[in-house]
Q: What sequence folds into this?
């Protein structure tokens, strides 16, 4: 309940923050703190130095620019949840942010934090995989852009260097006849997913699928991009039997462990069910008029 | 002048009086244990064992005591010098305060760190180094009973604690032999945890000059604690008149704040040694891992019926997992609580129940979580078995119950296991619930859905509760009889103060006790101050748990009021210059028979008690009553639950839940309804969400709110409630307890609904909690899992 | 470890203090400022008993460092009463029996006020969703929903009446 002692600084600029991270190899970034502080209270994480980046201006925004929706890394989940832009044009993102933790935690939790913490149980990674999103990262050696499908390397591991800060998330602006959905099975509100499935589709005017993105939450050591399930949809109309086939393939892509949320078999089954539901939900939105 | 006797002014029985307690809670001015701050107060934190069973090889404290602000590390050896390293349990077993050489459960207290504040104390705990030698662990009570099983207790011959049985075994066995139909089932009711939002804690304040101990404590039974502390510390020079236990505002009890936990004793010891106040507040993890457990009953149940589908006999054998010591908070003659209420609402002619208590390497407990002393276990068993029997016979479960209920004309009813039920009308409650939920339509809907492969279930629980412990011939806690008390004093201006031996943890006693007295005396409830929880001022009582307050202390309030009224009559006669027999009482005043214009109000009488009392009579207007109930009270009800099972996820959704409760006279309907809502939620949660689990090494898997799942407002069903009113004939105001009824009755309604949905597939029983993976496994087994 | 100086307003009053970075906001409120109305009920950010408003948003104060509140404004349950009158949420909880033991209540009310500020006329589903970060063991939530409905109605009625601005009292705490 009581964290161990640590040093703390709240820099006003990114270069200052990076310099502080460089000084101490156990320094950690404090963004929303809704994942980090609980770990520190249990003394499961004991960084000697906390670099609070919440005072850095210019990291909270949501706007479309050219081909990308650009979201500042410090954008709070509740801001995403209340954004009309996100609701109307990015239903997958809207679904996902709505289901993270609980409403109060969402006031502080950030999109950037949810990704950089790299917990395979977090919700945004699967959605970002389905979107084919990118993240922008700044470090002492400059900035770089990383596609999300190369970002996660293991449980709580990403390609982020110790002294790099994730600054922006970019989602492709949807082309016409795009739709998406996130369906999450949780034991109770506020829980991590027992399993969850994110889908993002682009169809043509006649209902044929042009591109498909399918991401899976908490059924592997990292978030999973269900490649085979995606591929089977491309170039075809999404009828019932194709949806089931994609679901079957998504289940095969999952690599879940037995744990308190259920057995691996159960979670694989859930992935199949939730893939069907996510695809149907996405298509249903389309028919509802997007 | 306003009519002081009007209902809305008096706010007596039946009035949904708004709560007096609310004002301080709503403004953040509650006085909970962690709000208490005393000058010089120190903080106690506790080092705990990572092993479920281990020998302690060494405890190194140098790194901890080197931290500035850490004053001492207290171990079992420290306490042994004062012979307080062990303490008796409520079931006369022994519990360690701190171990000397062996730990018996994961998270057991191993050492206490005393520091200037809780931050330093936490650092101190992290710095204490304990070396352990792990020992074999026993987690399964059935395995614990096998020959050659590792012994949990070195001071005992084996892991079997006691055998308890009740009923006529011979006649019951005969009834089973003769029966036309019998069913049997293994039912496991897993370990759960009360998880009141406030954890446990205390502030121990030893005054070395006055040799006086003030113990602020989250306790549901302050007087019992005072006496126990006095007995346990007598050899250290403490004396009961110099011990004051104060139970402040308590953030939920549910039975979890009845036992004496090691942290309390260590805090007392630390305060005595330092002469300073010591505060101990446990974290949620400590709370979930080390105290406040309930259930953990492995039950084998059988029912017998004759050819007319009348149930004739009930036979139950149970293994009770008590953890490493029997510290269950039972009345002393009842090691399995009131489990023998298991004949329930039905007219069984024969019954036999046997329970065996077993030691395992887990924390001690068993009696908590709104269970009325194992009544939840008993009701769950009989309601599940009744449903199994009804389904086996192909009879509608509602009809089956109606034809097997004890009938109204049979009350007072002596059950086959010896309880005399005071009053009841079970059929009326069930019929009301059936009407409210439109039962017949639901069965038709279920049939239609079944044809389409949709799984819908309807479950009933028609429970009889047994609360109000209890009559002195059968009930005591460590020898102290289970009466309860009320002391009322009327002031000259006609206002009153009333003190009780019980202790509310949210039940609203400050509001409802005043209503009882208001009804009896006609003094407006707003003019009656109610106090509980300070052993220096409150009359002796056994506290609040097992729904006993209204049946015992509520009765005492009525009787004490009537003693006051008897004296008031004498004073009124004196004031009115009439004979006592010529006076009539109408709530709030005595008037002369035939001359209603000649009256004296209770306020005038109160004033006269101090200014104009009759010569030869003592001044003042007060009374105390210690109420020894002649019987328990038997609230009852019928609950009906409708569930839909999602074949794609195994998730059970409660579509509707109707609860009809009968607690006799309803003192404050608003508060009764609130108790039902809360109780239903604590019945729903164990049915679908909650279970404390251990692995084979005795590691607790979910000692936190991430993985021990309390329902939020989203999961919790929208409860629909109704009532019938069948007063208790022996209670002074006809009231029965009600706080736990819904927790007792609800789990079976949900479990019955889920099994009902899948009975046609061949499913007979599923143990709670009915989690999605568990339900899915059954769907899969029966080819009903559907990936969409 | 160096202490940090923080300066913030709490319930409209200016507060200055020197605190360890590891001091959680909930402990700062309860221990340093003696505002014990905000409670601690768990250690996994699950129960919401510690909910306060930080810069106008509901947060779980057990998962925020006091230093993070530097320069900010905090509102706790003690700040709900205005001009000696109960806030509509407090009145609602009283009239509809939305509390029993009272321990979850301050956090529950702060979460509810935040919900109503964003959504002045919520449906029952929206209310239940809005308080899903707050656990209650006593009430079964039915009356909490009614209490919030009551408050919503009262707040909507009040907002159509023009009110004089309330000045914040600024007192330095030593």
A:
């Amino acid at each position: 309940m009581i964290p161990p002692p640590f040093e703390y600084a709240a820099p006003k600029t990114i270069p200052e923050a990076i310099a502080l991270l460089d000084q101490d190899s156990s320094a950690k970034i404090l963004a929303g703190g809704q994942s980090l502080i609980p770990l520190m209270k249990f003394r499961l994480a004991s960084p000697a130095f906390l670099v609070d980046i919440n005072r850095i201006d210019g990291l909270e925004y949501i706007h479309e620019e050219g081909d990308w929706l650009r979201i500042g890394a410090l954008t709070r989940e509740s801001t995403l949840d209340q954004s009309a832009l996100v609701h109307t044009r990015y239903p997958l993102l809207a679904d996902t942010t709505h289901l993270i933790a609980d409403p109060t935690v969402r006031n502080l939790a950030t999109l950037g934090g949810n990704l950089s913490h790299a917990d395979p149980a977090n919700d945004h990674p699967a959605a970002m995989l389905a979107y084919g999103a990118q993240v922008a990262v700044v470090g002492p050696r400059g900035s770089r852009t990383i596609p999300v499908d190369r970002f996660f390397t293991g449980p709580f591991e990403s390609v982020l260097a110790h002294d790099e800060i994730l600054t922006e998330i970019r989602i492709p602006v949807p082309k016409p006849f795009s739709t998406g959905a996130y369906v999450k099975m949780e034991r109770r509100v506020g829980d991590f997913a027992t399993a969850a499935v994110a889908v993002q589709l682009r169809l043509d005017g006649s209902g044929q699928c042009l591109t498909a993105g399918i991401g899976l939450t908490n059924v592997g050591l990292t978030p999973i991009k269900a490649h085979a399930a995606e591929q089977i949809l491309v170039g075809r109309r999404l009828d019932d039997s194709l949806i089931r086939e994609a679901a079957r393939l998504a289940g095969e892509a999952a690599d879940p462990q037995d744990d308190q949320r259920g057995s691996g078999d159960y979670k694989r089954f859930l992935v199949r069910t939730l893939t069907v539901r996510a695809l149907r939900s996405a298509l249903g939105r389309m028919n509802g008029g997007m | 002048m306003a009519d002081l006797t009007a209902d809305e002014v008096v706010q007596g029985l039946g009035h949904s009086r708004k709560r007096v307690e609310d004002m301080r809670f709503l403004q953040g001015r509650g006085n909970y244990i962690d709000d208490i701050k005393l000058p010089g107060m120190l903080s106690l934190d506790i080092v705990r064992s990572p092993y479920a069973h281990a020998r302690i090889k060494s405890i190194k404290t140098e790194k901890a005591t080197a931290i500035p602000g850490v004053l001492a590390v207290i171990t079992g050896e420290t306490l042994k010098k004062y012979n307080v390293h062990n303490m008796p349990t409520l079931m006369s077993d022994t519990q360690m305060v701190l171990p000397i050489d062996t730990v018996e459960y994961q998270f057991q207290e191993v050492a206490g760190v005393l520091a200037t504040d809780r931050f330093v104390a936490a650092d101190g705990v992290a710095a204490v180094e304990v070396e352990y030698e792990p020992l074999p662990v026993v987690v399964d009570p059935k395995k614990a009973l096998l020959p050659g099983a590792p012994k949990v207790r070195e001071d005992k011959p084996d892991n079997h604690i006691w055998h308890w049985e009740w009923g006529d075994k011979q006649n019951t066995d005969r009834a089973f032999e003769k029966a036309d139909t019998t069913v049997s089932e293994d039912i496991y009711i897993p370990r759960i945890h009360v998880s009141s939002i406030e954890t446990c804690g205390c502030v121990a304040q030893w005054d070395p000059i006055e040799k006086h101990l003030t113990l602020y404590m989250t306790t549901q039974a302050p007087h019992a604690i005072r006496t126990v502390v006095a007995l346990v510390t007598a050899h250290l020079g403490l004396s009961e008149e110099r011990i004051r236990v104060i139970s402040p505002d308590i953030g939920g009890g549910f039975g979890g704040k009845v036992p004496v936990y090691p942290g309390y004793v260590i805090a007392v010891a630390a305060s005595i040694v330092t002469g300073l106040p010591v505060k101990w507040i446990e974290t949620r993890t400590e709370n979930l891992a080390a105290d406040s457990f309930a259930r953990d009953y492995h039950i084998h149940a059988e029912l017998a019926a004759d050819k007319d589908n009348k149930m004739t006999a009930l036979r139950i054998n149970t293994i009770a997992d008590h953890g490493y010591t029997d510290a269950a908070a039972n009345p002393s003659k009842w090691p399995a609580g009131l489990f023998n209420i298991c004949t329930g609402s039905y007219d069984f002619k024969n019954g036999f129940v046997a329970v065996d208590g077993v030691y395992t390497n887990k924390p001690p407990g068993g009696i908590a979580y709104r269970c009325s002393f194992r009544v939840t276990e008993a009701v769950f068993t009989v309601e599940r078995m009744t449903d199994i029997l009804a389904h086996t016979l192909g009879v509608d479960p509602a009809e089956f119950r109606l034809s097997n209920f004890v009938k109204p004309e049979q009350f007072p009813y002596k059950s086959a296991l010896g309880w005399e039920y005071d009053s009841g009308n079970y059929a009326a409650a069930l019929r009301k619930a059936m009407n409210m939920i439109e039962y017949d339509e639901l069965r038709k809907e279920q049939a239609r859905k079944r044809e389409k492969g949709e799984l819908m279930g309807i479950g009933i629980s028609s429970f009889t509760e047994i609360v109000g412990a209890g009559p002195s011939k059968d009930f005591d806690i460590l020898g102290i009889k289970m009466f309860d008390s009320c002391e009322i004093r009327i002031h000259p201006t006609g206002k009153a103060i009333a003190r009780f031996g019980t202790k509310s943890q949210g039940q609203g006693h400050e509001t409802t006790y005043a209503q009882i007295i208001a009804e009896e005396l006609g003094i407006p409830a707003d003019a009656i101050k109610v106090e509980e929880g300070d052993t220096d001022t409150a009359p002796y009582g056994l506290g609040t748990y097992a729904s006993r307050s209204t049946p015992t202390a509520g009765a005492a309030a009525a009787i004490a009021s009537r003693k006051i009224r008897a004296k008031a009559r004498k004073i009124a006669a004196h004031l009115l210059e009439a004979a006592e027999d010529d006076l009539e009482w109408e709530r709030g005043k005595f008037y002369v028979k035939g001359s209603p214009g000649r009256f004296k109000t209770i306020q005038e009488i109160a004033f006269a008690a101090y200014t104009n009392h009759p010569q030869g009579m003592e001044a003042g207007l007060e009374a105390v009553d210690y109420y020894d109930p002649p019987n328990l009270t038997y609230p009852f009800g019928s609950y009906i639950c409708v569930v839909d099972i999602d074949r794609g996820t195994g998730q059970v959704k409660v579509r509707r839940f109707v609860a009809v409760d009968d607690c006799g006279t309803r003192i404050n309907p608003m508060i009764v309804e609130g108790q039902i809502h809360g109780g239903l939620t604590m019945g729903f949660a164990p049915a679908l969400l909650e279970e404390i689990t251990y692995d084979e090494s005795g590691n607790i898997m979910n000692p936190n709110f991430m993985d021990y799942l309390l329902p939020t407002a989203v999961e919790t069903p929208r409860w629909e409630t109704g009532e019938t009113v069948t007063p208790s004939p022996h209670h002074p105001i006809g009231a029965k307890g009600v706080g736990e009824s819904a927790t007792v009755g609800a789990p079976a309604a949900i479990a019955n609904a889920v099994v009902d949905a899948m009975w046609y597939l061949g499913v007979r029983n599923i143990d709670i909690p009915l989690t999605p993976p568990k339900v899915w496994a059954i769907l899969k087994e029966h080819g009903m899992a559907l990936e969409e | 470890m160096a202490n940090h100086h923080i300066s913030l307003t709490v319930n409209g009053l200016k507060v200055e203090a020197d605190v360890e970075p590891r001091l959680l906001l909930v402990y700062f409120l309860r221990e340093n400022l003696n505002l014990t109305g905000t409670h601690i009920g768990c250690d996994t950010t699950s129960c919401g008993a510690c909910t306060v408003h930080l810069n106008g948003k509901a947060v779980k104060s057990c998962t925020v460092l006091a230093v993070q509140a530097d320069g900010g404004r905090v509102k706790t349950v003690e700040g709900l009463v205005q001009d000696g009158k109960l806030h509509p949420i407090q009145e609602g909880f009283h009239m509809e029996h939305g509390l029993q033991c009272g321990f979850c209540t301050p956090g529950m009310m702060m979460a509810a006020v935040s919900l109503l500020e964003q959504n002045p006329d919520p449906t029952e589903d929206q209310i239940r969703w809005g308080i899903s970060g707050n656990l209650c063991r006593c009430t079964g939530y039915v009356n909490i929903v009614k209490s919030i409905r009551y408050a919503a109605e009262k707040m909507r009625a009040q907002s159509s009446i023009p009110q004089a601005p309330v000045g914040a009292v600024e007192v330095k705490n030593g």
Q: What stands out?
A: The mean pLDDT of chain B is 97. Chain B touches chain C through 57 residues (CB under 8 Å). The first helix of chain B runs from residue 7 to 10.
